[in-house]
Amino acid sequence: MRRRIAVLVTATTVLVVVAFLIPLALLARTVAFDRAINTATVQAQSLTAVVSTADPQVLGLSVQQANADGRFPVTVFRSDGTRLGAPARRTPAVRLAERGRSLTVDTRDGAEVVVSVGDAAGGQAVIRTEVSERELMRGVHRAWLLLAGLGVALCALSLFVADRMARGLVRQTSELAEVSHRLAGGELDARAGVAAPREMREVGTALNHLAGRIRELLAEERERSADLSHRLRTPLMSLRLDAEALSDPAESQRITGHVETLQRAVTRIIDEAERRSSTTTGEVALRCDAASVVAERVAFWSVLAEDTERELRTVLAEGPLWVAISEADLGACADALLGNVFAHTEDGVGMAVSLAPGDDVVRLVVDDDGPGFPASDTGPLSRGASGSGSTGLGLDIARRAATDSGGGVRLDRAPGGGARVIVELGRAA
Fold first, then answer.
1. Residue 354 pLDDT more than 90?
2. pTM higher than 0.85 for the full model?
3. Domain membership of residue 109 as a residue range
4. Are 264 and 317 members of one domain?
5. Residue 366's closest CA among 403, 410, 407?
């Protein structure tokens, strides 16, 4: 608001100043033009008496003296065809003046002043002088600079006054913005003052009510996260006991490993929810080694790839490759991408995973040898959007992970015609 008020006042002042300064600038130019023309005309007319009465010798001396003392070159065209004074050609204006008409005409280099006068021989002589563009503009540029400086000074003064006025008007808004930033940073005890004008007091009351409601919702989320942990503990324990009771040791170990992975995933989800709902101020800088995390998830899914007779090709750069994302989020991103391949392609369809560093990002690419993305799939990166009958959350998980790190996700076609997902993860400092 403060900036808008300042811009509005400044724009209004500029319009007013321009409306006044442009006519003044044109007036200054007109005055200088008229002054130069009048001076040249007076200089030419001062020779009329000499041209009318003096002989050629006296006239020549008078013209030379006029050219020596004056600012403008003077030429006298006599009726007998002779020419005295500064060199000049017989222009159309001179020929017109020989018929008894004095005039001033604009030329390419300035202006031409011609004065018609009868000479001593009884013919019609012409006194011609030329005013250059420099003489016409003498003093104009200085006047324009003064006007421009005055305009800038007025605009600066108006901006200063508008800023002082706007500061008082938006002080309460700035305090409300500060409270909202403190709330966004996790300081849920922050409250807005109510000692303000009625409109601002209503906004502050609403903001305080919102802060209280946020605290209540976060408390409910923490309670539900704890409740989720307790509810899943019993079925996970039962599933683990069933896995350990299998007669085949290898099968029992494999199923037990899956149960432990599920238990760790649930624990990560609960920890993440509690971390995001904590009331501590400030943000914790997250980062992890993308090389180690992706290698671990690829090793996990390689077992399933072997069971489903899929070729898993990997090109993973050596670490460390630090990215601005937590290990849990990057693992969930990799699981979502690899899981999509298993979920949406038939057994035996190959896949490839590559991880390589870029300029400012680390690029994770997952290809498959399947049919690619459905033609009707207009927005697979949107949450819940899918053209394959799934929940549509896999690519959204990858998109959110990439966005949180400062990168992004692109969809493309793999070299073999299948689907390609390119995840660009922002580098960590």
1. yes
2. no
3. 2-140
4. no
5. 410
